[in-house]
Design brief:
The structure is a single chain. This protein is globular. 41% of the residues are buried. The N and C termini lie far apart (61 Å). It has 14 helices and twelve strands. The chain has two domains: 186 residues, D-Maltodextrin-Binding Protein, domain 2 (3-Layer(aba) Sandwich), CATH 3.40.190; 135 residues, D-Maltodextrin-Binding Protein, domain 2, CATH 3.40.190. With 372 residues, it is an alpha/beta fold.
């Protein structure tokens, strides 16, 4: 969708002044066009994730100087959250904002950009693999195999997500068995293998389901989203730390024909806008998540570290899942092999080079810290 906008050309004004004789010069006028793209996110309007989608659009719109305008609608405005990919591919929407794991039902390999421990890579390292270790080409190959005419940009390293919110704390692996639980992506397979009865509900349906007793527990993502979605209103126990989605990131989708129709300079603005939004999102997440973590505690939520025995059980379940899926799906194995090769090198570098920040934190804020 395009709108014509008239702008005054400085060069035209000078030319008009130069040729004027005996009369007032009339400026020459050039016509520019504003291309408006309609996006939808997979998040409720009140969620910080929808805010991240708007942040990306704001950056692109500002840099484009009126030539490109991205408008972002919340989940459900045009299509349900889990139908975003098809809507963008068909051109019902020009683009969207979500996560790759939401599409894993189309090809299980898509869940590897979010679900599971990613061979020990943190979220930023997964993005490094995606952009420089072959992940981007593999994702494009998967979408092409599904005849989906989209262009995908991944960005925004998410902090490790909690194991979940529960009516009762989970203290041992046996406590997971029989629990009616919400998650998405290959985390569905992980929690199922651990004995849970899983229901992959969209974000906006989780808290009502908890409130009505349709599920006993659920995970979504982070302190800010969990707080605004209303988790603390219906349950008061949250288990922190998990490998089910410890390296996830966001996806910005474009309809390929709509993106290809943009001039090169606007495509560059989109590309660099993604990179700028990625950095900004990671900084904003630290600020907002840490504030909302405090507010959740004030609201009476009790936080527990997920026991190591449960974390090891997650890894054991994941090993079974990737062995099965890799044997069934060549693209799944191709993505796994690429991730593993990158993680072996990058992980060793990071683990060897990075200092233990907990030591410094405990020195200043731990039980034995000196009071200044």
């Amino acid at each position: 969708m395009t709108e014509k906008k008239t702008v005054t050309s400085r060069r035209g004004m000078l030319k008009g002044a130069a040729v004027a004789t005996g009369a007032m010069a009339v400026p020459m006028v050039a016509t520019a066009q504003t291309t408006t793209l309609r996006f939808q996110s997979t998040w409720p309007a009140k969620d910080i994730f929808h805010e991240y989608a708007n942040d990306f659009a704001t950056k692109v719109n500002a840099m484009a100087g009126g030539r490109l305008k991205i408008e972002v609608l919340p989940a459900g405005a045009v299509v349900p959250a889990f139908q975003l990919l098809e809507a963008v591919a068909k051109g019902t929407l020009d683009g969207g904002h979500g996560v790759v794991a939401y599409h894993y039902g189309k090809n299980s390999a898509l869940a590897l950009w979010g679900s599971g421990p990613a061979f020990g890579m943190d979220p930023n390292m997964v993005l490094a693999w995606h952009n420089y270790g072959g992940g981007k080409d593999l994702l494009a190959e998967i979408y092409k195999s599904l005849n989906l005419d989209v262009v995908s940009y991944l960005y925004g390293p998410m902090p490790s997500q909690p194991f979940g919110w529960f009516k009762k704390p989970i203290s041992k692996v046996a406590d997971v068995k029989g629990t009616k639980f919400r998650t998405v992506g290959l985390a569905v397979d992980m929690y199922t293998d651990m004995g849970a009865a899983v229901n992959p509900l969209p974000g906006g349906e989780i808290v009502p389901a908890l409130d009505r007793g349709l599920i006993d527990g659920a995970e979504f993502n982070n302190a800010s989203s969990d707080r605004v979605l209303g988790f603390p209103d219906v349950v008061k126990n949250c288990m922190l730390q998990s490998f089910h989605q410890s390296g996830e990131q966001f996806e910005i989708l474009f309809n390929k024909a709509k993106l290809d129709a943009l001039p090169a300079e606007l495509k560059a603005i989109v590309d660099y806008g993604v990179q700028a939004a990625s950095a900004d999102m990671s900084w904003k997440a630290i600020q907002r998540n840490s504030q909302d973590y405090i507010e959740l505690k004030k609201a009476g939520v009790k936080f527990y570290k997920t026991p190591d025995a449960i974390l090891r059980a997650q890894l054991a379940s994941w090993d079974k899942i990737i062995a099965k899926k890799g044997g069934e799906n060549p693209l799944f194995k191709k993505v796994l092999d690429s991730q593993k090769a990158f993680a072996a090198r990058a992980g060793q570098w990071q683990n060897d080079y990075m200092v233990d920040f907990k030591m410094a934190y405990n020195h200043y804020f731990g039980k034995g810290a000196k009071k200044s």
